Amino acid sequence: MAAVSSAHQQVLDHLASGDFYSAHQKARTTATRLLAPPRRNPLPVGTVLPYDKKAQEAAELLWDAARKLLENGQTGSGVDLGVMLVEDVWTAREVGCGKDERAKLIQLIALTGPAGAWRKTLTDAIFAWSAKTGSGAAGDMEIHQYLGETFFKEGDYHQASLHLLVCPSQDAAQTLANVMFEWSKLDPENECGVGRYAARGTLSYLESSFILAARTFLSHFLALVLAAYPTLRVVSFPYPPPSSPLATSTSAPPSGDEIVVTKLASLNFLQLAVRDVQAGVGEAVEKVKVGNEWRAQRGAGTKVWQSLVGKYERQVPWMRAPEVREGLTALGEIHFGLKPQRAGNPLMDMMASMFGGGGMGGR
Question: What's the rounded Cα separation, in Å, for the pair 43 and 49?
Fold first, then answer.
């Protein structure tokens, strides 16, 4: 271990003697002193101080003390120093979430454990910091993935899904499939209810434009479902079918792709929805007759999407729920440029009808 300062050593001595209160206070006051701006030649207000030797010393002290306090069951004190590290050092000095920072934080999260609200206090600070330093709008994705896997092991499927849904990696998508499948086993509808759990992962990934993650999730989820409930399978066929003009299109999905038709309309819809979103508004192909010959025409993705949603909304009851319809409308706007219908103005509609004009709803 590298030599430490005398102040750092005092913190270690307090910890070794079991005087955790003094260790916590000494770590805090020493870090505050190290992070203080220069008294001579003060910098202009708003200037970001550098991540210099003193700031790095403060960071190492806070992390080491937080880790050892957590190892000794002093969760509140350990988390307090962890938050100080994130907010007063890395956020204030605009330090990014690199490999070393991430590894240290994951260790602190692991030591904090699930009891109480301490882990959330720490991770809220971590995600607020990492979102500001270019690690993703929701915070560092690798830490989200670690938390998702942790919550899954703890049996908290809801929290696990929230963290995994912001991660577009294949590993995160496969873990999410495991999460949603295990969660679906608790549903009183048994295999008849799995479509809702598939939709939570698939549609949420698509809304974030994580198309490959959506495909990975759904493929893995389907494999789990069909292994557990083999009677749900009806037939599978290559996609796109060889006779389809999309099969020879440069935008065709990779060879080896297939659609598995099941007895659940919801699972069939989700598979087709992912393919249509992947093809996009300007890439889907349909055959149109021009003179005496059939030609491939691009730009049919929008029409396919509208047809899919319209057809399966009639077959799948939960797709008619307001929140699901809102999500499908958002997908249509994001991926196909479909503008949602503007709600009519009841007062204007009434006035128009009174004076012989048409209602304004739906324009």
Answer: 9
